Amino acid sequence: MGKLVMVAFGGNALLRAGQKGTYAEQLANVEDACRCLLPLLEQGCGLVIGHGNGPQVGNALLRHEAGARDFGLQSMPMDFCGAETQGSIAYLIETAMEKVLRGAGLSRPVVSLVTRVEVAADDPAFQNPSKPVGPFYKECPSCNQAGDLRGNSAAVYREDSAGRGWRKVVASPKPLVINNINLVERLAREGNIVVAVGGGGIPVVGSADGRRGVEAVIDKDLACALAAVRMNADEFYILTDVPKVYVNFKKPGEKALDSVTVSQAKAYMAEGQFAEGSMAPKIRAAISFVENGGGECIITEAGQLGNPSCGTRIVK
Fold this sequence. Notes:
eight-stranded mixed beta sheet
């Protein structure tokens, strides 16, 4: 294979604003995203695909909680729901990618791995929930009155910085070890398209009996950045719904960034140029990849792939 590339699908690759999230909608969205990867495949790149699962894992929790409330079924923990959505989204990507490859006259096997990611049991993030999951609410659900569907008054909701409403937030610990990452790299370098680290991976901590899951969601861009570093990937693409990163976004003096160094990116972060829950996690992941030995990270819209000047490039 040629270059090894890690691609992190953004949320709009699966579910777009105004959609209900039906199977047909999500499959069509994933097919569009996979079609945008053709320029990389036509160049002979080895490819690993990661993806988010924030809305899907939140909806899975709601379904489990509703089943427990209305039918007496056993509600499953968040790590189990993460595994469920990791597998179902990977199935969508495999199905869509196979169709795209056949349409382009290409032959590449597509394989998915349910991925566990180790975190520290004492990570401070467990004391400060920050990762949004599930649907947006126009008003903040009053935890003192209703809580979540299980009546959990400890549920935490925060308003989205982009003004889209309120969402439930959970712990988001730092990824430390990507399980089986050497196998992922080997498969990709042998020509397989690999889907892994879905939803940031299933968060686990070490114990005397092995690894056990914990109630948390790992940031998918940060986990993909770590995977890219461990695989010695040449490039790391973070796909989002804008063609470039902007400073003063939707404000006077708005400016698209073509290329920024790590130090410039850190300075923009310190200025508060990038919103949490939106662009800030992507910039943080890009910095992590480049600082830890990666080549360059490109943040862009999926449709821009193949354009040599696409996106915003974060470089050393």
